[in-house]
Every structure is written in structure tokens, then in C-alpha cells.
What we know:
This protein is an alpha/beta fold. The mean pLDDT is about 95.
Amino acid sequence: MSLRIALITGASRGIGAAIARRLAKDGFDVAINDLPTQTPALESLREEIVSQGRRAYIHTTDVAEASEVKNMVDSTLKTLGGLDVMVANAGIGSLLTPLTECSEDAWDKVMRINARGVFLCYKYAAQAMIAQGRGGRLIGASSLAGKQGSGYSSIYCASKFAVRGLTQSAAQELAKHGITVNAYAPGIIDTTIFDAFSPEEGVGADVLNELVKKTPVGRLGKPHEIASLVSYLASQESAFMTGQTISINGGLFFD
Ligand code: NAP
């Protein structure tokens, strides 16, 4: 099996952009996705990757819309000639809120992107990979919050636990097609996602600082450190690993 074409969602910045850069460096041609509002950042990432000799195509698509995800996969098959690795990375944070005050709208919004989005990416990529008949890799974004619940974060935690369940179940079904399914579970990584956890200036930073203090390695993780794990999961060498959600969190939680 030769793995050479990857699609990465939520790739305009943060962990997704780092994964796209790393997989391109590893020799993959890449399809990079984000919402239409992120087109300028995607354009600049595309130019960077193309200048390094790889092919790169942009898909401005909402990962929670089934028809858009299906079109994105179909279009990747046409433009890049196949699909070997799907990295369902796109996700959003949610406000720190007591359960008793969580709105149904907040539940729907976070679950729509973090859980339904990963489900759709796995589903349509798996259909394409099975039809191709050359195996593949499905890789999803879970979280430390998908391993351990925490107060005031019920909705986000539920969405990331969902990714683990989906990953384990899909792994059992798809192994016979040579498709492995794994997820990454980052701790506290230096991206802008934490801006969503608090509307008040500085409060999000306070929460972050507290978490960093509790992290044995004593710092935030870097997006490229998550990309390095994804590089392994996307490689031929990881063929015997499937159904796993791998913690990468500076020792903040052991499982
Ligand atoms: P980020 O910097 O906020 O990047 C996420 C990207 O996904 C953004 O560009 C965002 O665009 C995009 N996106 C949001 N909704 C989308 C949709 N419906 N369709 C397509 N793209 C969409 O986040 P990150 O920190 O890199 O996190 C990447 C993934 O890792 C997420 O799933 C996150 O939950 C997970 N994670 C992150 C951490 C961490 O500490 N950073 C820890 C654990 C897990 P907009 O800005 O336009 O919404």
C-alpha cells in the first residue's frame, strides 16, 4: 500500500495547518479544507506547500454538511487522483458553562462540528477508500477532554468522547479493508481555540495558565508536536495500530 494523498480539515491555522505542512514534508499531496472565511490563510498555505514541490488543493467546505463533505472527497479523488489519509481535524471550543446553564443551541453547535463533522469525514472518506481498494488511514481530533470529563466543559467533553467511540467502532469495521482509524488527544496546545472558552478578555488566559501550571512538562504544547504524531498515524509504519485515541498532553493526564 502506498500512502500519498491526504485531506486535512480545519487546516487554515493551528493544529490543522501544522499537520498539512508536516504531511506535505513527508511527501503527501494534500487537499486542505476550512470554512470560506479562511480562504486567504488557506491560499497562503497552499502557496507554501506548492513552493516545496507538492500538489495542494483548497476546499472551502463546512465539515458538518454531508453534501459538501461528499463533494470535497469526490473533488479530491478527481484533482489529486485518490485519497489515502483523511484527517478530520476541524473543531470548535465552547464556552465554559455550568451544565445547568448550557443551552440546547450550544450543544447542537458544538456537536454538529466536533462530532457530526468527524462522522461525515470518516464516512465519505471510508466509502472512497473502500472503492479504491488500497487501504487508508482515518484520523480524528479527539482531546484530553475526550478522555476525562471536566466541570464547566460538558458539551465540549461530550463531543470529544464521541470521536473516541466513532474511532473505535470504525476501526473494527474497516480493518478488513486495510483502513486503520485512530485519533489524537492533545492536551493544551498553543492555538487560538481557547479564545472560544471565555468571552471575557483575560479569563480564558487565566484558565490556560492554570492548566499549564498543572502540566508536568510546564508549558503549552506546539501544533507541530501534534503533527508529528499524525505523521506516524498516517504512515505505513502504523499499520498494526487501530482504534486508538492517543494522548499527547505533556503528562497532564495518564491513561
Ligand atoms: P483552531 O486553531 O481554532 O483551528 C480550527 C480550524 O477549524 C479553524 O480554522 C476553524 O475555522 C475551522 N473550522 C471550524 N468549524 C469548521 C467547519 N464546520 N468546517 C471546516 N472548518 C471548520 O483549533 P486547533 O486548536 O488547531 O484545534 C484543532 C483540533 O484539535 C480541534 O478539533 C480541537 O478541538 C482539537 N484540540 C485542540 C486542542 C488545543 O489545545 N488547541 C486540544 C485538544 C483538541 P473558524 O475559525 O472560521 O471557525
